[in-house]
Amino acid sequence: MKLTIMKNSRNILTLFLCVLFTLISCDTLELDLTENPNALSPSQADAGFFLNSIQIDFAFWVSSMGDRGGELTRINYMSGRTYNNVYSPDSWNSVWSSAYRGMLEDIRLMNVLADEAGLTYHRGMGKVFQAYILLTLVDYFGDIPYTEALQGAEAILNPISDRGESVYSAAISTLESAISDFNSGGPVPTNDYYYQGDADKWIKAANSIKKKALLNLGDFSNYNSITNYIINPSDDFQFVWGTSPATPDTRHPLYRSNYTSTGGGEYMSNWLMFNMINGHAGNSDPRINYYFYRQVDNTPGFDSSADEEVLECGLPGYYVPPQLRGSDTPFCAPTNSSSKPANGYWGRDHGNDNGIPPDGFKRTLRGVYPAGGAFDDESFEGKVDGDGRGGFGITPIILSSWMHFMNAEVNVNTGGDPTNETLIALEQALIKTDDLGGPELSGEDISNYVAAFTSDWNAATSLDEKLDMWATEFFISLTGNGIDAYNSYRRNGYPRSLQPNIEPDPGQFPLIQYYPANYVNTNKNANQRSSKTERVFWNSNGPTSLK
Predict the structure, then answer these.
(1) Is residue 249 part of a domain?
(2) What is the number of structural domains in the chain?
C-alpha cells in the first residue's frame, strides 16, 4: 500500500516541480543582505507562488547543509586532510545567500501578502522554515545577523550579528507563533509539498524542531513537556523529489551526483559501510542493500587481486597510518584487513584527498534510500542516469526515529534508562528503509536485527559502550541529512569509534565554521574568525576529544 501511495505522490510532485522549477531559481550568488534586485516583489506574485519557491529552496538548502554535517561525522565521505582547510569561507557563500537573500527574504515578502489575505497556514509554514534555517545557521556559524538582517530598504546595509542565544530564543518563539497560525484555521495553500494540507502534522513538526533546539540548550524539562511531536513515521517531516532529468531537474540532489553518464560522482563513507556490514552479533544491517548499490562484486586487494590503477591502497604492503590500524576502524575499503572480504563495497576513508582514478563504474553508489537510486539486488552492473528509481528519493528534515534517539539522550541526561527509546528508534529506522522501493524489508529481518542489537547492548559493560552503539545507529538513520549528527557529536562526543582522519594530525575537529567570504568581505560590521576552535554558545562545555 505504501508503495502505491508513494508512486502517486511521485507523479503529482514531479508535475508540480517541473512547472515550478521553470519559474523559480533555487540559488543566488550575491551574499550581502540588501534587497535582491532579482527577487519578486509583493506586487509581482502571490503568497502561494512565494511559498512554492520557499518549499523547494528549503529542501535544497537542507540537503546541502546536511551533506556537510554528514561528511564531518562520517555518514558521508569527506575529502580533506586538514580540518582547518575543509570548507573554506568561499564554500559557504551559496548556502548563506540562499538562506538570507533567498528564503528568508521570500518569507518576509510572503508574509506581507499573507497578512493582508488572512493566509495563516502559509504564514505558519514560512515560520517553520524560518526557524529551522535560523537555528541551523547558529549551529554552524554561531552569532549571525537577525534583527538588522533584510533591512536594506531601511538603509541598513551592514547588519550587525546577534548573539546565538538571542537568535535561538527568537527561533523558538517563531515556532510557537507558527503553531498559533496553524491552529487558527486559515486557508490551505494549493501546494503543500511536505504535509499536503495537514495542519496537525505541521504542528508536530514545529514542536519537534523546538525539542531539538531545547536539547541543544540542555533544557530537558521543557523538552519533556512537549508531547505533541513526531513520534510515528506517518508524521515524518521530509521532502519527496521527482524523477524528471530534463530542465527543470526534479531528481534528488544525491541521485544526480551518483547516477551519471560516466558512473558514480561521489564516494561512499567506508566508516558507514563498515558498521553496516559488521552490524551486531554476527548480523549485518539489513538496510545496507537499500542504502548502497555495488557496481562490482569484488574490491581489489580484499576480494580479488590488487589493482593499482583504481585502488592503490589495496596493494600488498601499502602503508596504513597508525590511527587506522585498530580493529574498530576500516582502511581503504569497508573492512580492516585484506583477509576480510569487502564483497564489492568500495568507498573512501575520512579525509582521503587523493586524485580520482577511473573507477566511476566500480565504486559503490547511493542506493534506493534516501537518494532514489537502485536497490542492491546483487546484479553488479554499472549504473547511469535513469537507473534505479530515477531520483525519486527524500530529503529528511525530522524523522520519528530521530526523535526517539533524542529522547534516549535526554533519558541519559536526566538519570533515566535509554534502552526503550533506543529500541523504538532503531525499529522505526529499519521500517522506514523500504519506503522508496526495493523488496519489503521483512518483519523477520527487522526483529532479527533488533534482537542482535539488543544482545550487544545487554553485553555492554559500560554506559559509554551503549552510547557508542546508540550514536552509531542514530548516525546511520541520519543518512540524507547530517545536521543533527554534527550537533550530536559536538554535544556529547559519541560514537567514539568514528574513523580517524587519514592524516595523523588533521588539527582540531571543527567546532564551528568560518563565516562565508562574501558576507565578511561586503559587511564592514562582520569579522572573520581566526579558527574553527570557537564554540557555539550551547556547546561551551562540550567534549574536547573529537576526531
Answers:
(1) yes
(2) 1
